[in-house]
Structures are given as C-alpha cells and as structure tokens.
Amino acid sequence: MPSGALLFQSVILGLLLGGLYALLAAGLTLYFGIMRVVMIAHSAFLILAAYLAWWSHARLGVDPLLSMVVTIPLFFGLGVLLQRLLLARLRPVTLTMMSVLLTFAIAVLIEGLLGYAFTGTQRRIQLGYGSASIGLFGARIAVVKLIAFGLAAVALLTLYLLLKRTRFGWALRATIQHPDAARLIGIDTDRIAGFGFGVGLATAAVGGTALALDTTIYPSLHWHWIGPLMAIIVVGGLGSVPGAAVAAMLLGLVQSLLQIPLGTTWAQTVFYLALFATLAFRPQGFFGGRLAQRF
Amino acid sequence: MTSRATRTSRATRGRRATALGAAVALLLAGCGDDGGSGSSDDPIVVGISLPLTGDFSEPGKGVQRGYEAWAKITNDKGGLLGRQVELKILDDQSNADRVVADYEQLIGKDNVDIVVGPFSTRLVVPAARVAEEYGMLFVEPAGAAKEVFTQGFKNLFYAAPAVADDHYNHLAEYLLALPPGQRPTTVAYAAMDDPFAQGTAYGLKAKLEAGGVRTVVDEVYPPNTTDFSTIAAKIAASRADMVVGGSQYQDGVNLIVALQQLRYQPKLAAFSTAPTSPEFAAAIGNKTEGILAPTGYTQKAPYPSNVEFVEKYTAQFGSPPEEDEANAYTTGQVVAAAVTAAGCAEQGECQQKLVDWIRGNKVETVVGPLTWDATGKPQGAHMIQQWVGGQIQIVLPTEAKEVDIVYPKPAW
Amino acid sequence: MPSASDPTRAHRLGGPLRAVAILALAAAVLSFPSWAPNPYILSAGVVVLNYAVLSTSWNFVGGFTGYISLGHGALAGLGGYATGLLVVRAGLPSFVALAAATLLVAAVAVPIGYAALRVRGASFVIVSIALVLILLLVAQSWASLTGGSRGLVVPRPFPGLLRPEHHRIFFYLFAALLALALLVWWLVDRSRFGLGLKAIREDEDKAESLGTPTFAYKLVVFVVSAGFTGLAGGLYALWFGDLDPVFQFSILTGSYLVLMALLGGVRQLFGPLVGALVVGVGLEYFKVEFGNTPLHLAATGLLLALVVLFMPDGVLPAVGALADRFLRPAQSSIREVTAAELREQRDTAPPGADRAADPPTELPVGAVDGRSGKEGP
C-alpha cells in the first residue's frame, strides 16, 4: 500500500499533467467543432513549439517562455492557412476521412523535418531553476511544472473568455452550432472557421512551451501525446470543450495514480481502455453528448 | 554493379527479366559503392552501422569518432598489410530493423572486407546474426549484456574489459565489506528496459541482495520515457539509502533532475553511462557531487597504445577520448591484430582464420590485455568513478584509485 | 476486371492483354531471385513483396469500404509477435505457429472492429491509430512475455541455411502469399458480398436502408483484412528473426501501406501492388543512395498530403484517366453523373469549407465513381 505522502504527490502530479492535457484537448475540440476534423497533427505542432522553445533557449539564450511571443502568432497564422488552403480544399463528403489522412501526413512531415533539423537526439532545456521545487503539505512541486500548469490555466481561461465574451467568440460559436444560420445573419463563416483553427493551433504553441520546460523532447514524441489526447476528446464527447477539460483532468489524475502500482507504461493504457470503452458502450462520450455543440 | 556482386548467386541463369523487373533491379542496385575486393592495392574496407541519429546518437557519435581515430592512426602508420583502411559507416537511426538491412547491404552489396559492431547491445544481437550467417568475423564495442553471449554466436567478440552485469563488481565488494552499521540497508533501482542499462543495475542488485541489502524500489521504464516524476516520487517516498540507475544518457539526466526536484538525498547514487558523458554536469545544473558511475576506460591508463591513442585522438578531435571512443578504438585494435596475424582481410575463408586467431590469443589494447571465452565474453572488470570536487575520478578498485570514495555522498 | 469497380476500364483493356500482363508480372516476380545481382537486392525484394502483401491486405478494408485504417502496421506486428511467441514460448513448429497466429489476429480483430466500426468516419481512424500505440505499450511493458524493449528473437524455421538461400525461400513464400491475397480480393470483388461493401463505400445510409447488413459486412471484411495482415506479419517475423516493439508497432508502417494503396489506386486489384513496388523500391533506393535520414519521413508525409489533396483516387487511375481524355475526347460529352456526385455538387459546404472554387476535377470515365461516404459520427 503506497504511503499517503506518495498518494498526495501523485495527485498533485496528475492534476498538473491534466492541466496541460486539458489545454491541448481544447484545441483539438475546437477543430472538431468547427469542421468535424480530427487533427492528428495537433501534437506534432506541440512538439514543434517545444523545439522552438528549446532552440531559442539553447541557441539564442532566450528564456523559453519568451519564445511564445513568436510561436503564438506564428501558430495562429499557420492554423488559418492550414484551414483555408488545405482542409477547405477537401471534398465535403469524404472530409472526415481525408482530413485525418491529411493532418496525419502533416504530422509525419513535421516529425521528419524536425528529425532532419535537430536529429533524433533527445533534447532538454537546461534551466537554472530546473531542479528547484516548493513544498506543499509534505509534497514537493517542481517550479517548472508549476509554471507549465500556470501557462495552461491562463491559456484555457483566455480561450474561455475569448469564446464567451468577444464578438469573435460569439461568431465562432454560431458557426459551430449552425453554420447556415450563421451565414444568414451575416457571419463570414469561412473567415471565422479559419480564425478558429488559428486559435486551436495557438493552444499547441502554449502547450509546447509548457512541455519543453520540464521534459525531454524528440521528434517522434508527438505520438505519445496524440493517443491520450484523442482518447480525451472521445471520452469527453467530441466537440465539447468542458467535456474535454473534465476528461483531461480525470484521465491525467487516474494515469498518475495508476503509475504507483503499475509503472509508467502500463498506466498509459488507461487512455486507450477509456477510448475503447467509450466507443463500444457510449460513442457520444461521457461528458459531451447532447451538450457537444455548446461551450 | 553486377560484375563482382554475383559471388553468392550466379546471375546468368535467368536474364530474361521483363522490363519492369529489370527497371526495379536497376533502381535497387544502381548505386554500387564498390568496396574492396581483396587485391593488394585496394584499401581494406571496414563496414559499420552506427546510431548517428535516434535514441543512441550521443554514444553512437562517440563510437564513430573512436573508429575514425583508429583508421587515421592506423593509416598514418602505413595501414594494415600495406593497405589503407577505409571506413564505410551507415546510420541505423538506433533501429534494429535498419541495423540488419545495413549489415546486409555492407556485406551483400558493398562487399566490405571486415565488419565491426554497432553501438548498443540491443542492436548487437541482430547485427551479429547477419555477420554470423554470412560467415563474417564480428568484433563489437558495445554488446555488454549477457544475452549477447547466449545466442550461440561463434564469430563474436566483445572488445571491452567486462560485460554489463560485472560493471559494479568493485562497488558491490566495497559496500559489502563495510561494517554493518555503515552499510546501506535499502536500495532503490530504476533501469531502462535495455539489456545493457538494465544489466548493469541488475548485476549490482543481485550481488547486494545476496549480501542482505534490501531492494525497496525496482522500476523498469522503456527507452522512450520522458516523464520521470512518478518514478522519482516512488524512490523519494521509499527513502532508500542508495539509488541505482541503469541508465543510458538522457534518462539518467532526467531521473536525477526529477529526484533533485523532490529533494531526495540518498547516501549513495550510482548511474551507468550518463555521469561519464562530457555534457552531464551542465545537463543537471552542476549538482553532480558524489554521483558514481562504472567505467571500463580511463585516459590515464599506462598501456603503451593508450598513451598514443589519447595523444593522437586529442590532436585530431580537440578533446581527450571517453569510454565509447575507447571501446571503438579497442575494437579496431582487435581486428588489426587479427588481420596482421592472419595475413588477410577479405570475405570468404579468411574470416574463419581471423576468428580462430582471436579465439586463441591475447590482444594488447587501450583498456589493457583482452582475452575471450568460447562465447566471446571478455574476462575482466570495470572501475568505479565518482564526481569528487567537480570532476569525475576513479575511486575503486583501491589499487587504481585517484581519490578516496566519498561515502555517504554530500547533498546534491 | 469484370467487376463493378471499374466497368469501362475492363472493356477497354481486353481480356487477353490483361492475361499476358499478369503472366509477365508473375514471371518477373518468380524469376527475380535468379537474376537479383546480390543477396542484399534479394532481401530488399523480400521487403518490397512484404509491403505488397500488406497493402493488398489493407485494401480489403480501404478499397472496398472506404474506411481508412492507419493501424494495419500494428496488426502485422501482432501477427509477428504472436508467431514469434508461439514458437519461442509454446514450442510450436514455425509454420504451425504462423497459422495459429493468423487465426489469433483475426480473432482479436473482432472486438477491435466492433468498437471501431460501430461509429462511422473519424472514430475508425482514431481507433486504428490507438491500436498501434496500445500494442506498442503492451509489447514494451509486458517484458516477461514479449521480451520488452530488448526485442524478441524468433528462431529460424530452416536452421543452418546460409543467408542468401534463406532470402530466396522467403521470397517465394511471400510471392505465394501475395498471389493468395490478390485472388481472394478478386473473388470478393466479384461477389455479392463485394457489391454490398462497395455500396457502403458509395453511400452507407442508402446501403443500410436497402437492407445491406452494413455493420456485419464491414466487420467481416475487417477481420479478413486483419487475418491476411497478421499472416504477412508472421511470415515477416520468421524471415527477419528479430522483433522490436518500436518497429513492429509503428505508425509509419501503417502510413506506408496507406500511401502505397492510395498511390496505386484503391479500386484496382493491382493498385496496392503497384504502389508497393513504387514506394518500396523508392524507399530502398533512397536509403542506399542518400543514407538513412529523417527526410524519408518528411517525403512520405509530403507525398501522402499531395495524394490526399490532388489525387485521392490514386495516382495511377488519375494518370490513366488523363491519358484517356487525350485518347478519346469525344466521350467526355456523354457524362454520367452519379447520385453521389450530384449530391456533392448540391451539398452546401460545412462551415469553413471553401466550396465554389472546387469544380469536379475528376474525369468522366467511371460511371459508378462514388464520392459519397462518411459524415462525422
């Protein structure tokens, strides 16, 4: 039986990890809401952002957090271009299938280019505060993990406010819920959809920076993220941002706790078990369902 | 490309290929880099597959530098049998499937004269099987795990002093000889699921358990693990007196940082491979004090060929050689000794002569004199190094030590 | 091909001509070991044949139903590991183990297919990717059974054989397996069962309302496809001898298969085979010529993206259609439009899809040229 301290430590680690999952899953959910696209390349962009953060720190000596000044606008632009130039070209009737293939191809392309540019060697940002930590009721929380979680939380909150409180958010929600009606009341749904993709991809920029703070990165790492993320959005109910966030925190926590008895690798299987169970017994997801279209 | 490559399958029988088939074959074969073919003026081509990218690219590049140093030093002295040595190095991306295709290409298509081993134990077994099935001698710098020697290979020799399980022998002896009150009583082990890395940790584990030291954590993680926080949490929660990491490079760094984040302070910390890397200290923020690591090589070893190696290697690459470089160089020395003694270096019957010679003789190398048993296992032991005063120094065995071992280790 | 896949083409290419072409191809494949210039080329030939079998197996699902699986690499890996483990742990003779492993993979495919095919569209692809990742995890973690990251050594079925002979035997075994897979695909293509599957591809709703048991059909063909994939994977394990989880359960393998099939054309019997020849030979060529760089991956991604964007029905069919347009311009006036195409034109785009600028680029050759398919779940 694991000690209370270890359990508490694991709960904290799980929540910190869940925060990052939630942010990334929110991006995936946006894409799906807008276009019924499952964006396989999301986590490849995540790793790309992490590499840019690492690179700017290792080569330019800039703090990795500052790299977001460049990566967030860059990824927003890439997201818009991706939607307008590539995904919008696909035939609507085969869109779901072909968009998965297309974004898969983009993921492979990014992985290959990363491997070419930075080699397959594992990289890690060496920060002065890398091994610093603060105590909390006997548990220890690494400062870098706390920063990463803070980033994710701020980004999620921003996303929420953007969707709920701005005119763009209103237009985006309208586009997601009823595109025809949205067009009728004068919303340029094409433009809005493009921007929506930009916002989704910007979450990958933030997530990548957060990721780079405390983990080793290598080009093929994105496969270890896309699996859990896809499981999260399916369990959460495709298209539901709150559903994805709840599923992310929950699965992150369960994964972290399961690592105590099962070890790191077996614990990861919880995502896939949840995915298979959801599809087999409740394909509409556990937290989305009819709420799927609402924020 | 067909003229010399047809030794194994005479191509004259079925020339009536269709256009498509012929095009395929031409495309596949159209890029022959002709290796040596045994004439006395041709260079001796040594084929190697190395992980220049992927999981093992850091040590892989070290091994590459060692081979390059060996080729240069050998050629500067007139080569082997009056022939120059030429290296043909392919990148296997740390991938077992590629390593097989690489040796297949080196032996079957490029027709190299000699093949030597790749890096990482995981890749040695598949590579050695290719060499074995083509009847080639296979001296290798990195097949340290015991399963390498249980495959029934007859042409394989490991060019290093000791196999992985014996790396910590001196440390185990030292710890078990301590008075019972000072001896660590609990140990936490975390090892990569890799025959070499795990072999080192489990070799020590077996000896300490036999001596009555309790194992409180025993974690195995796959090579692509990036998040060590939970493993570290388990180790920290166990409050073990000693932590042993069966690590390669990055995983060792990650685990140490994760342990430091949790402010875990063991009396002793031993990690394989990672602490001997030149980048190690910077990677963990210079909090290295007291970390132990086994090594099979020291630049200060007095063997004549080592003095020459360190001097010329430093001149060539600007920094002194590490263990990976030395192991590759040792491999070259073993091959060179066999080629010189057998008087030949090409595919075919010559290979058996080389094998027979190595089996029956002792070779002087930069890691000392080496001999092998019937399975190709070397008969020696490793030294133990420790980070003392900001640099890594030999502490065990006592007759080779540079400084005294620091136990318990200071806080990191 | 006297089938519903592509009727016009079948009339164009006369029967005798086809027979000659097939015979020539068979002769080229069968004589390859005797004119392969060295054992390395022969081993590369085995790799290419393995790809051909795998992509043909993939095409049972991809070609007939239009469901795209990225996880067939994992099914092959499972076949490989099952074969290897049955030999190593259960002591079965190599080829008995191979047969048992094939059945096992087919059996495992039933629950996977059940979860994946219940919902249409994206979730099938998600499950297929998840399959690769989960099997990788299991193979790595369950080290006491699989050997974990250290890999699994599969004993040679013909011990004592020199390597070139070993390659030769397996080349013929793979060729036989390829012939079997092609034959079964051809038979399915001509059957009522095949007709039902193609109805699913064209319009799953309509097929269902017309009484086709779509779920059962999809499941059966998925299991058949998995069985062939597992068989090929097991044969590969016997040939190759060293199994490593990272390579056996690789997303990349799956994506190669999709690329091959899409490149050659998923509606053609020989499409995946041709795609495998092009991609497989290309891969080996570039590896020998330029070494092994991550650019392979980039090139694969780029090619796949281009095919998806511009030639989703395959490169060879597109080229064939282009040639057709030049050869018989008169026919293009007699345009047959399918319901699906009409629907597509009529279809108001989902939000964001940039419609108007996308005239139907496909050519008026195939009458039954379904563009319909899956909506999101």
TrEMBL record, chain A:
Name the principal localization, coarsely classed: membrane
Topological category with respect to the lipid bilayer: Multi-pass membrane protein
What is the organism lineage in this UniProt record? Bacteria, Bacillati, Actinomycetota, Actinomycetes, Micromonosporales
Q: What is this protein called?
A: Branched-chain amino acid ABC transporter permease
Q: Which InterPro entries match?
A: ABC_transp_permease, BCAA_transport_permease
Q: Any idea which UniProt keywords this protein has?
A: Amino-acid transport, Cell membrane, Membrane, Transmembrane, Transmembrane helix, Transport
Tell me the leader sequence span. none
Write out the annotated subcellular location.
Cell membrane
Tell me the CDD domains matching this sequence: TM_PBP1_LivH_like
| Chain ranges passing through the membrane | 6-30, 37-54, 66-87, 99-119, 139-163, 192-213, 225-253, 260-281
Which family does this protein fall into? Belongs to the binding-protein-dependent transport system permease family. LivHM subfamily.
UniProtKB/TrEMBL annotation, chain C:
Coiled coil region boundaries: none
Q: Output the superkingdom of the source species.
A: Bacteria
What membrane topology does the UniProt entry give? Multi-pass membrane protein
Q: Where in the cell is it found?
A: Cell membrane
Q: In which residue ranges is the amino acid composition biased (Low complexity)?
A: 348-360
Q: Where is this region: Disordered?
A: 341-377
Q: For this UniProt entry, which segments traverse the membrane?
A: 17-35, 41-61, 68-88, 94-117, 124-143, 169-188, 215-239, 245-262, 269-286, 298-323
Q: Which CDD domains match?
A: TM_PBP1_LivM_like
What Pfam families does this protein map onto? BPD_transp_2
Entry keyword set: Cell membrane, Membrane, Transmembrane, Transmembrane helix
Query: Main location per UniProt?
Result: membrane
Q: What is this protein called?
A: Branched-chain amino acid ABC transporter permease
Organism expressing this protein natively: Plantactinospora endophytica
